[in-house]
Specification:
Elements lengths: L5 H36 L1 E3 L2 E3 L1 H26 L6 H21 L5 H27 L4 H29 L5 H32 L17 H10 L2 H31 L3 H32 L2 H21 L3 H25 L6 H33 L3 H4 L2 H28 L2
Helix pairs in contact: 1-2, 1-4, 1-5, 1-6, 2-4, 2-7, 2-12, 3-4, 3-6, 4-12, 5-9, 5-11, 7-12, 8-11, 8-12, 8-14, 9-11, 10-11, 10-14
Length: 430
């Protein structure tokens, strides 16, 4: 990075670190509370008795409905609030909400269990979308290539830190105390956003040209409910980003199913949990390595299309290997190939795609893609998972799912190539 870029990079790094660390504290807690509650009580729905895992699948579908409402609110607020001001609103909402749950989480009922589960996903949906909308609206495409790798490293490190701290202390600290900790980290993240906002304002006061390379926005009219969808539908570039987002979610779900099935087939009892813990540790370390050494190198020295195509190519290689040799460690490698690269280089490259777009596209279209399209793709993936579990019942057939993964990755590569080439053309024209 250049010397003048550090004052923005440092608070944004710390902000993203705290947001992702907070999410990785909330995620296991909300999942644990939900599963434990319905493992004991079950869920009766119109004469249909659901066990905990089935109830959670319904909760994942409900997440899509909540995400759709989030798109409406985000799009409406983004008409008048930008950058750190939008972050203040959502951070304030979560501070109040988490404080409220801290008071009632000790003895939850159905409403608290469900609403807290949905809030956990809503946290990352809104806070991450707001963070990147702020960042994309504050830097030029050229700055993004230098700034995104170290800033996104904050999220990768935050995920490893949050999950590790929770794992070490979850048995000795009550859930309500964890929620108060999350209240504090969210409040600090908002303060860091305010600091970053002052830095951006100072930069623009000195040099009003650079951010600069954004396309002009259309007049701010229309229904916020469909504003983002309309922008995406009329832009081949945004449709390519939508394909990247949606295809990744489906591919990731299939890879996770293969990974889980492989471990369960080859191992028993405590060895299963030990393998999961080992693979997740390897994945987190690999993600840090990729973000520090690979992402910075590739994004700074090569066209963005190379970064966009790295993750699908790695997944393609891992899936091909598993198709040929479906053993324990080739199945475990699927998890590392997915998460180590998606949370690092893929995240950095995908977010950089928004920098040459208009402000409406940075806020409304991105909100639609990151909140609704992503959740909708996950809902499709849930349906695919249910279908897969009924068709692929024998381990010998699990390997053939890699053919579907390879086909989806091929389309993903086409979308990544198109988006990368268009990004180059859009930034060269400015």
């Amino acid at each position: 990075m250049r010397p003048g870029e550090w004052p923005l990079a440092i608070p944004m790094f710390a902000h993203f670190f705290l947001v992702i660390a907070t999410f990785w504290v909330l995620k296991p807690i909300k999942k644990g509370i939900f599963v434990a509650f319905y493992d004991e009580h079950g869920l009766d729905l119109a004469g249909w008795h659901l066990h905990a895992a089935q109830a959670e699948l319904l909760a994942k579908v409900a997440n899509m409905v909540v995400a759709a409402l989030a798109v409406i609110v985000f799009s409406a607020l983004s008409r008048t609030l930008h950058r750190e001001k939008l972050t203040f609103v959502f951070a304030g909402f979560f501070v109040v909400a988490l404080a409220g749950y801290a008071l009632v989480i000790t003895d939850p009922g159905h409403f608290v269990v469900w609403s807290f589960y949905l809030l956990g996903d809503l946290y990352t949906t809104l806070m991450v979308a707001t963070f990147f909308a702020f960042l994309n609206d504050s830097v030029s495409p050229e700055e993004a290539k230098r700034l995104y790798p170290p800033i996104v490293l904050g999220g990768v490190a935050g995920g490893a830190f949050g999950s590790s701290v929770l794992s070490a202390w979850i048995d000795s600290i009550e859930h309500s105390t964890w929620l108060w900790i999350c209240v504090g980290t969210t409040a600090v993240a908002a303060l860091l956003a305010g600091l970053a906002g002052r830095v951006v304002a100072g930069r623009e006061a000195r040099d009003p040209e650079p951010v600069r390379a954004s396309a002009p926005s259309a007049p701010d009219v229309g229904n916020p409910v469909i504003a983002g969808a309309r922008l995406v539908a009329h832009s081949p570039y945004l449709l390519a980003i939508a394909a990247i987002v949606g295809l990744y979610e489906i591919v990731s779900t299939l890879l996770d199913f293969q990974f889980t099935s492989t471990v369960a087939h080859f191992l028993d009892d405590e060895a299963i949990g030990e393998q999961f813990a080992l693979v997740f540790t390897i994945t987190n370390v690999a993600a840090l390595f990729v973000q520090i050494f690979v992402t910075t190198l590739v994004m700074s020295r090569f066209p963005l299309v190379v970064s966009l195509m790295t993750t699908p190519l790695v997944i393609l290689a891992a899936s091909t290997g598993y198709l040929i040799v479906p053993i324990l460690w080739s199945g475990s490698l699927l998890n590392t190939a997915d998460n180590a690269f998606s949370y690092s280089i893929n995240q950095s490259a995908k977010e950089a795609l928004y920098t040459p777009t208009s402000r409406d596209e940075k806020y409304k279209a991105k909100a639609f893609l990151d909140m609704f399209v992503q959740r909708f793709a996950k809902s499709i993936a849930v349906g695919v998972s249910l279908l897969v579990t009924t068709v692929f019942t024998d381990f010998s057939t699990i390997r053939w799912l890699s053919i579907a993964v390879i086909a989806l990755v091929a389309v993903w590569l086409l979308a990544a190539r198109y988006a990368g080439v268009r990004f180059r053309d859009m930034t060269q024209d400015r």
